[in-house]
Structure formats: structure tokens, C-alpha cells
Amino acid sequence: MPYLSAMHTVVVLALDAVVPFDLAVPVETFGRAVLPDGRPAYRVLVCAPAPEVDAGAFTLRARHGLEALAGADTVVVPGVTDLDAPVPQAVLAALQDTAAAGTRIASICVGAFVLAAAGLLDGLRATTHWAAAAELARRHPAVQVDPAVLYVDNGPILTSAGAAAGLDLCLHLVRRDHGSAVAADVARRSVMPLEREGGQAQFIVHPPPLPDGSSLAPLLTWLEEHSADDLDLAAVAAHAGLSTRTLSRRFAEQTGTTPVQWLHRARLRRAQYLLETTAHPIERIAVQVGFTSQTSFRERFRAQVGVSPQAYRRTFRSAPEHG
Q: Roughly what angle, to the nearest 10 degrees, separates helices 244-255 and 233-240?
């Protein structure tokens, strides 16, 4: 069975001063996920330590209390606007019990401060909004804070950077649970791009591209459409009308990676889709997505996805075999 055998419950924990955007991201992303057979992929609940939650511009009434955490498969902790407000002891204890039970727990933006206060990030690599990273490291020296990445996946404990990085994290979890086809469908339903890689830089710290043609958006679209072509750095630079040095600099500024690394990731995303939706042999898929070496394909796939192509197909096969 490629999907979770029972309805996967996601519980979003809303604390006073919750950031409304951070709260809405998991509710909407998981709530829009639909399996190929039309069933909802997740059941999404919002819980809080009190019936009413101060969300700044409005007051939120939560339907569930902290007891909902005990029935969760995944708990998501959004950020709060007041980092100095103490986290209620009941919340910390509930999170500790939830983690001890093996439940997956993720934070969005400065929600990492709540996980850290509960001791769930001690000894782990974690991230948060770049502007709050130094403060997280100061308050919680046992946490290995990485301010440069979009999200960090430690298995049962995950953290993400600010704002849009929460979308990336949630899509990453959908892909992890149900495969790339379901994640791609969620992205389309939400009118947002497929998630960026977790190790990509929080490039919000860079100045936004000016309207002088320096945005890489058209080139990234072209690369996605031609990822199976025989492309190298020189070929991509020639298409963009740039020197290889200028292209590499702009890629580093706007994506936090290199053109070749981005191309490889695009090819692997396509390979995941083909593994899920076709009966094509692994060797054929490697060629279809642009790899000339079977060994290179298998090594890169395992390094990027964490399992072999064969194991991935067994887990996420989502459609009848077709040519």
C-alpha cells in the first residue's frame, strides 16, 4: 500500500500571539492534499491550551485542547510574535510527551523557539527565520542553529525558516508521506511552486532581482522543461546569454545553489514522478530524465531521496502500470 493505511492526523498548535500566516500554511497545505483515489490525505485539526487564542488582528477560537496532541501523527508549531512570552508549562509537557510517543513534530519560523524551550532540539541541527537565528542560538546553546537553510529534517523533528519556507517544509512532508505526484498536486491546487530543497539558502537576505532581466525565473522554467537535454554549465549560460561566471553568481544569489545542482534536482524530481506513475524500467527512466550513467543516477537518487529508485517505487507507486 503506497499510502498511509489510516487517515493521517495533523494537529496545528496555536499559542497566544500566533503568527496568522504560519498557522494558515499547514492548515491549507495539508488540507488540500488529496490522494489519487480522491480521498483526503490528511485530517487537520487546530488545538490550543485555551479556548481562545490572541492572533493579533483577530481572536481565534480553537475547537480542540492540548489533548488533541495525543492523537496526532504530525504536530506543527507555528511561530509567535512575542518571543519573550513564556511558553505555558502545560504546552511544554504536552510536547515532550508527544515527542516521547514518537510523533513527528515540525516548527514553522520562530516556532522553533517553542520546540527548543521543550528541549526537543537539544543536540540537533535546526533552523528558524534568519533574523532570529542568533537569538535562538543564544538562548539555547545546545541547539545547532543553521541560519542559512530553508528547513532541516531530522526525521521525527523538523524546523523551517520564515514565511514561505513553511510552505516548502509542508510540501516536503507531503512528498515524504505520499510521494511527488501528490505533493505536485498540492502545489498546483495552492498555486505555488514545488518545494525548494531544504538546504537552499534563505535568499530573502539578498536584494530582490531588479526588473532588468536579472531574474532567473524564465531560465528556471526553461531548465525544468529541458532538464532531460544534454546540458552543462556552458550550454545553460549560452541559453541565458550570460557568462558562466555571471550565471553562477546569480544562481548563488537567487537560489542558493549552482546551475548544475539545480538541474540534477530537476531531473530527480522528474524521475520520482515517473517511478510513481509508470512501469518504465529504472534504466529507461534514468535516460528519460537526462542521466547518461546508470550508476550516477542511482547514486544521486539515493543521496537526494534517501532510498534507491527501486525502494522509492515500491513505496510510492500510485497509478496503474502504463507505458
A: 90
Q: Rounded to an integer, what distance in angstroms lies between the CA atom of residue 233 and that of residue 286? A: 20
**Strands 151-153 and 157-160, sheet pairing:** antiparallel
Q: At what angle do helices 259-277 and 217-225 cross, to 10 degrees?
A: 40
* pTM metric for this prediction: 0.72
Task: Please name every residue paired with 61 in a beta bridge, in sequence order, or none if there are none.
Answer: 52
Domain with CATH 1.10.10.60 in the chain: 208-323
Q: What is the pLDDT of residues 151-185, one digit of tens each?
A: 999 999 999 998 788 999 999 999 999 988 888 88
- Nearest-angstrom CA–CA distance, 69 and 275: 35
Let me know: does 80 contact 49? Beta carbons within 8 Å: no
What CATH class is the domain 8-189?
alpha beta
Q: Residues of 106-118 as b/e, b for ≥16 C-beta within 10 angstroms?
A: bbbbbbbbbbbbb
For residue range 80-116, list pLDDT tens digits in order.
999 999 999 999 999 999 999 999 999 999 999 999 9
What the block records as the C-alpha cell of 25 is 500554511
Q: Answer for the pair 155, 124: CB distance below 8 angstroms, yes or no.
A: no
- From residue 158, alpha-carbon distances to 153, 201, 222 in Å are 5, 17, 32
- Whether 17 and 82 have beta carbons less than 8 Å apart is answered as yes
CATH superfamily of 208-323: Homeodomain-like (1.10.10.60)
Q: Using the structure block, give the residue that is written with the C-alpha cell 500566516.
A: 21
